[in-house]
Amino acid sequence: MKNPMKPAASKLPGSDSAPTTERERSRLKDAAVANESLLIAGLHQQELTFAAEALSTRLQVEIEERKAAEAALQQAKDRLSNQALELEHLVAARTAELRETTRELEAFSYSVAHDMREPLRGMRGYAEILLAEHGAMLNPTGKAYLERIVQSASRMDMLIQDVLAYTKVLHADAMLTPIDLNRLTRDVIAIYPEWQEPLAEIEIVGVLPTVLGHEALLTQCITNLLSNAVKFMDPGVVPRIQIRGEAKPDARQRVWFENNGIGIAPKDRDRVFGMFVRLNSKTEFGGTGIGLTIVRRAIERMGGRIDFESEPGQGSRFWIELKEGSKP
Questions:
Q1: In this structure, are strands 316-323 and 305-310 parallel, antiparallel, or unpaired?
Q2: What angle do CA 312, 316, 318 make, to 5 degrees?
Q3: DSSP string, 106-131
Q4: Of 130, 187, 279, 290, whose Cβ has the fewest other Cβ atoms within 10 Å?
């Protein structure tokens, strides 16, 4: 039973203030930390914004510079293209002019060479008549002079004929058809008595191929190659020539002309196909030095190649190579 006289115990003011203050401090501290984090984040955001703006500006500058460079490059390409087109037109015009001039010169040289033969034949003919009918009346010196006239006229006539042959090769309408080299070569050999035994031994080994060529040009090539093979021999040596075919890749056929002649020195290799080039003295071997030039030009006109292998004293092995032709 309570004592009515005893007063009830009462709370003292501020008896729970310590916990309240501690919680307030914690809340304020958290708020400060949050504010500090927000402030730092804001600063970082501002820095990133500045960096992004600077990068954007730099990229914009670079883009403008690249666009300017591309525009300059395109202008340079356009100028170069225009200059190339102008140069192409100029080259085409000059080439046409050069071809026309070349045709005129070739026609002129052909006309001159052809017209020169008539008076030359007359000079040689009269010299030969003079030697035959009145040679007994001349002293040895006079006869020697007339013989030199005949020899010089003959050589000049041979030179003119070779020039005409070369000109014909240049102007020939080289329509290519299948040519049976086995038949053509035998026909060419049969024309020349000096190529027959016992004066020379020419052997066709096996069967020669059919090639894509021009019969007149090939006839000239075979004639010149065999003529050289028979001619360039040491004194007293019987010419022995072998002709054989060899299939090559890419549907091409190679034909070899091998001889036992004097051969060709390595130092003369680059001169063999030159115009009017003579590797030997004209007193030793006749000719004009244009035969192989004609062969090379004719073979090239038919889309072929020509070359040789040779050593001094070991003979020579010339070859021509043309596209394979189907049997006619």
A1: antiparallel
A2: 145
A3: HHHHHHHHHHHHHHHHHHHHHHHHHH
A4: 187
Ranges of each domain in the chain: 44-171, 175-323
State the Cα–Cα distance between residues 218 and 10, nearest whole angstrom.
143
Q: Which residue has the tokens 């030199």?
A: 148
Instruction: Say how many CA atoms lie within 13 Å of 71 toward its Cβ.
Output: 6
Burial (CB count within 10 angstroms: exposed 0-12, middle 13-18, buried 19+), residue 143:
middle
- From the number of C-beta atoms within 10 Å of its C-beta (0-12, 13-18, 19+), residue 127 rates as buried
Q: What is the rounded CA–CA span in Å between residue 319 and residue 19?
A: 118
Structure tokens at 139: 């002293």
Q: What is the pLDDT along the chain (328 residues), one digit of tens a residue?
A: 444 444 444 444 444 455 568 877 777 777 777 777 777 877 778 788 888 888 888 888 888 888 888 888 998 888 888 898 889 889 988 888 887 877 776 676 667 666 777 787 888 888 889 888 888 888 988 888 888 888 888 877 777 777 777 777 776 667 889 999 999 999 999 988 999 999 999 999 999 999 999 888 899 899 999 999 999 898 889 999 999 999 998 889 999 999 999 998 888 888 888 877 777 665 566 667 788 888 999 999 999 999 999 988 899 999 999 999 875 4
CA distance 263 to 272: 11
* Contacts made by residues 122-129, CB under 8 angstroms, sequence distance 24+: 123/149, 123/153, 124/149, 124/150, 124/153, 124/154, 124/157, 127/153
- Which strand (E) or helix (H) includes residue 322? strand 316-323
- Which CATH class for the 175-323 domain? alpha beta
Stated as kind and residue range, the H or E segment containing 12 is none
User: Which residue is listed with tokens 């036992």?
Assistant: 260
The alpha helices in 172-305, defined as continuous H runs, are: 181-191, 215-231, 291-301
Task: Give the whole-angstrom CA distance, residue 214 versus residue 236.
Answer: 36
Residue type, 299: I
